[in-house]
Amino acid sequence: MSDRTTIGVGMIGYAFMGRVHSQAWRSVGAFFDLPLAPRMAVLAGRSKERTEAAAAQLGWADIETDWRELVKRDDVQIVDICTPGDSHAEIAIAALQAGKHVICEKPLANTVAEAEAMVAAAAAAQGRSMVAFNYRRVPAIALARRYVEEGRIGEIRHVRAQYLQDWIVDPEFPLVWRLQKDKAGSGALGDIGAHIVDAAQFVTGQNVVGVSALTETFIKERPLATESAGLGATGSTARGEVTVDDAALFIGRMSGGALASFEATRFANGRKNAMRIEINGSLGSLAFDFEAMNELWLSADGGGFERILVTEPDHPYVGAWWPPGHGLGYEHTFTHEIKDFLEAVATGADPSPSFADGLRVQRVLEAVERSAAEGSRYTNVED
Amino acid sequence: MSDRTTIGVGMIGYAFMGRVHSQAWRSVGAFFDLPLAPRMAVLAGRSKERTEAAAAQLGWADIETDWRELVKRDDVQIVDICTPGDSHAEIAIAALQAGKHVICEKPLANTVAEAEAMVAAAAAAQGRSMVAFNYRRVPAIALARRYVEEGRIGEIRHVRAQYLQDWIVDPEFPLVWRLQKDKAGSGALGDIGAHIVDAAQFVTGQNVVGVSALTETFIKERPLATESAGLGATGSTARGEVTVDDAALFIGRMSGGALASFEATRFANGRKNAMRIEINGSLGSLAFDFEAMNELWLSADGGGFERILVTEPDHPYVGAWWPPGHGLGYEHTFTHEIKDFLEAVATGADPSPSFADGLRVQRVLEAVERSAAEGSRYTNVED
Amino acid sequence: MSDRTTIGVGMIGYAFMGRVHSQAWRSVGAFFDLPLAPRMAVLAGRSKERTEAAAAQLGWADIETDWRELVKRDDVQIVDICTPGDSHAEIAIAALQAGKHVICEKPLANTVAEAEAMVAAAAAAQGRSMVAFNYRRVPAIALARRYVEEGRIGEIRHVRAQYLQDWIVDPEFPLVWRLQKDKAGSGALGDIGAHIVDAAQFVTGQNVVGVSALTETFIKERPLATESAGLGATGSTARGEVTVDDAALFIGRMSGGALASFEATRFANGRKNAMRIEINGSLGSLAFDFEAMNELWLSADGGGFERILVTEPDHPYVGAWWPPGHGLGYEHTFTHEIKDFLEAVATGADPSPSFADGLRVQRVLEAVERSAAEGSRYTNVED
Amino acid sequence: MSDRTTIGVGMIGYAFMGRVHSQAWRSVGAFFDLPLAPRMAVLAGRSKERTEAAAAQLGWADIETDWRELVKRDDVQIVDICTPGDSHAEIAIAALQAGKHVICEKPLANTVAEAEAMVAAAAAAQGRSMVAFNYRRVPAIALARRYVEEGRIGEIRHVRAQYLQDWIVDPEFPLVWRLQKDKAGSGALGDIGAHIVDAAQFVTGQNVVGVSALTETFIKERPLATESAGLGATGSTARGEVTVDDAALFIGRMSGGALASFEATRFANGRKNAMRIEINGSLGSLAFDFEAMNELWLSADGGGFERILVTEPDHPYVGAWWPPGHGLGYEHTFTHEIKDFLEAVATGADPSPSFADGLRVQRVLEAVERSAAEGSRYTNVED
């Protein structure tokens, strides 16, 4: 480790995404032979007290209470953006302009215009940039990609992707930031629909070229979330409008001729994080469900579906971890992402997914919204 | 058995559907206490030789080579129509006008106009009439319906239905009648899409009120099927145009406010007869896959999915059969259908699904075709 | 059908087994090209009234109230024994001596001595004889056998077989005949343990050569079953001793060197008819669970387990039935059994499983009982 | 973190177990509110060069090349033993006598005598001691334990436990230390059989009181493993004797009256790490398979099995991690173990499982070996 170059990391945000990114930064070097040794240098958050506590718990050496200060620091070469989507563009562009490498949580931005600006900034910058669609780094998803590339399922006919959750089925669940359009951009569509669009494009190697969509907000008003009371215990009777979609359904076409079906919802009772994708090709099929993330199902040669436990040493990323049958968890996808990002930074290669990949997803989401607004008519995704 | 009134049955067609209906007529009386004892009186088919052979094997007492003769016979009170969809309307109307009870294979007809004529004939007739959406009689589907009626999953938010097969993925599979629009009316849409539309409406108790659709024919030309050569071995190089859809995808809305997603395809490699439906409600969810037809999955009270083996005596239809854990097969759905039909005939009650139910499905299919033809725009289902 | 020789069948007993055998006799000719056309000639039972009602419902032409009369009849060439095990030997021997072919429910007999007498009678007789281990005719089990014969899983290392039910977990479930040693011979051991021993021997082609066993009766006394009151509703407080095992566990060795583990119990809450077998070989593995009877799981070449939907035309017995993905049920195993039996009768071949196969199972059960009685010591199965 | 007392950890061994323990020590503080902050002070290994490299990669501050030095160090308060079983007793006793807390990999020792000495040393020592049966810390296993304690499945009738692997099915797999009795003590029995014995005792709260056993070594000789050549590539034709069991099967009784069945094997082709346990009680059942480690199956009230995704905040250990549906992996079981150990150290409570628990497992294994050696006769487990 001593003969590797150390590279300083500054992370902005320490909520759910910040916690999981921290675990990845902390662990990656113990499992992968990295060209660069990350140093958890600085954590930025608005509250000094809370940021200090988070830094202590998560293992960051220093803190800033203004992300602009973090972006300027000499001991920071990588900026990791774990904030809500409405601040991604501003932070990422500033960081890129300051000569930093940037890894940014998904969705890339809340609007296509912001995403375009980010792509332009990335193109003009010295640093590498990556959007954190972590599901690409589920070993089973990466293995699916490999099988498609190898031609094992032939020409693709169907993509069937769903992201099903149920955390807001209760009408008394409060109006958190993810249910507010100004913060989150959209609801299920941008939060989880973005993941299945990216995964479908990644695994098939094809783009979504047009969509027809329906969206719905089942619960129009919810109790206001009060910071002190926490979730679901507001005490107050005040309610506010839900300004994002609860569910988004769309069908469409892929650039290679396949038909695709997408569904993102937070109202699928009993489904906790069922990010599922099934792909049918002329020679075989693949199926995956994140609720059983260590399994990939493959049908080849007209046979039944084989449950591949994606824990073999020659499966993507797996060789670094445990023996066969000893599964990985959610957080490992981030560890893999950061490993790939560090390699891209070291070699100067373009990370995958790039900001351009993130923009492509954004354009699909935008086409979905336009289609839904215009009587579900088939809407081309802009290039 | 001797003190039950015997009722004569005449069946038209002896291919796949005729074989399975025969097994149902033959078996139903041994398991259910019926008000009427069916007598397998007459089988009709065009070829005398083949019809005689089929009657001998399947257990029919007599044959006709013209269905018009069968419809006239005094020893036939029930006419069972197992022919392709293009002849349903003519036969059913003639049988109803001749005072017979009619059970007709699905889809009810190849066009809405024909279906409307059949509904009118049914309304004017003395006899009972039923369209044979046999999946309503899968015990697990009937149990799902019961749970919805009992309110166990609450207000319905999502219907997710797929009917996936793979029998024509090979481009050399020949141009059989099911791939010709003049015979079959449509492709995957009418053949298997009809089943999931009916099942979705049956289980939820709601109608599909509007759809946005995409259809596709992946393989535009296929070898001509020659009768002597049989499937897949034509010898000839002649090819003909596939005039029906290979796959149909549509999203839509149910009358009670749920969003629905449907997919019918014959290109889902590795899926043999995956007729699946998942329903998410405000209190719970249900999931079913015909490839495991004795199982229903129920999530209630926010818990995980419970695998209910639908083989308990108090489950629909099951008490007539075997002990718990001793599953039923495909053909039992037809036995149940005929049992219900005989009871409706005996009591004068309206069978379910009626011709009107069949027309309702037909109208959905017609809206799907219109939407697909008009840039996937959202299309209301006519009443 | 008219040019096939008709063969008369007489069946003794019309309870659960009689009902399912009747359905098989009734259906077999409609699906299989048989060398002999069975005629459902006579049903025997002790009560005239009940036997007449059963014959009418199940489709038998005539009745007898004494099985000895049935065995003598000229219109009976096949005797089908569906009575409890304590009468098997007497009936089968009488029928064989009367020149009849005999198909006898399992277990072959309640004791090894009886089974030996039956084997001797079978050897001396003109007629064919078969013991009805119907699970050999589950298509998935027959396919497993085929794969083993083809060498697809290599040298067998492990057999892991369980038959799990739960119908007597309630201590108030009454003392039915299956819980009485004089009628049933043994409990879970002979009723369901016999099935997994036979299946293990059939699929592997190896015999169980020695066992070490534990048996247990968890509930020592139960309410007496009164005929009028029916199951579970005795009204009376009288109780009787349970004289059979509730559960039997044994481990042992197969003739080819594999280790085997068996468990038969009626106390596996939530398992309804989980007749399961897993076989591990040097090249692959097979797994089956009757609760999903249309599926066989195969691992080959070190890969994951493939779910084979055993509904393809080239799978054993399946070609006679429905298209791929349209599953079969419990009763079909009996239809297959009778089809094979009729072919054996027509050709004079030895049916499988023969009475000798039944005796071999009986000897294993006897070794289990001896081992359990003698401190679980390893006990060789006699030849 | 700053106001927590820091506690120094010294770990001996850096192979598979050392790597996973390191990840646990590194991560535990970021997720759990700990009374003590572990400091990764010293790593001990025989080779200076390799130990230094491992320390650098795994994050240990210093190294020792003799574990005796590590045990003496003032900056080490906890000794973590990750060596093969033959050295456990010597190291653990020395560490305890030096006043350290000890966490020791399983099995506790290679013989009952060693284990007894360790228990005696633990009883005499100031420090806390724990044996690392990590499967107790699979959230699903801990939840199963909770359900049993709450009485949800009633009186336990059956335990059915298997640990199935396949990593040595190839006869050319070399003679690694795990296949040598002097190093490993036993084969599948002690390595993986120990886990299912502990898990069965933990979940049921009952001890195994007697067993009847069979063991087998399928492949008697294997290529010698040469250190330079690595696994499976020996080049040499030299072979050595396999001195441990490849598989162990045993049936037995639990202290509460349940029957139990155990099977540990490394020859279950296609099973990678199938550590499975099913428990049937008078009111319900539980089932688990580590290959799907985030799932627990519960049947209650006679219903079907419910798939509980053990990722809810109120499930054991889960609240510290990710939202519902975001599963954990193998290594988390160690993180949980260390969290519980640190709490025990801080409070002076007895850790679970204690050395006494480890001894109890050892006594079961010893009874298994005696039974297998003595014709499988039923052998009481000594107290």
TrEMBL record, chains A, B, C, D:
Question: Where does the source fall among the domains of life?
Answer: Bacteria
Question: Which InterPro entries does its entry note?
Answer: Gfo/Idh/MocA-like_OxRdtase_N (IPR000683), Gfo/Idh/MocA_oxidrdct_glycsds (IPR050463), GFO_IDH_MocA-like_dom (IPR055170), NAD(P)-bd_dom_sf (IPR036291)
Q: Where is the Gfo/Idh/MocA-like oxidoreductase N-terminal domain?
A: 7-133
Q: Known SUPFAM superfamilies for this protein?
A: Glyceraldehyde-3-phosphate dehydrogenase-like, C-terminal domain, NAD(P)-binding Rossmann-fold domains
Report whether Disulfide bond shows up as a keyword of the record: no
* Keyword annotations of the record: Oxidoreductase
Keyword Transmembrane tagged: no
What residue stretches are annotated with the GFO/IDH/MocA-like oxidoreductase domain?
143-286
Looking up Pfam families in the UniProt record yields: GFO_IDH_MocA, GFO_IDH_MocA_C3
Protein name per Swiss-Prot or TrEMBL:
Gfo/Idh/MocA family oxidoreductase
- Which lineage do the record's taxonomy fields give for this organism? Bacteria, Bacillati, Actinomycetota, Actinomycetes, Streptosporangiales
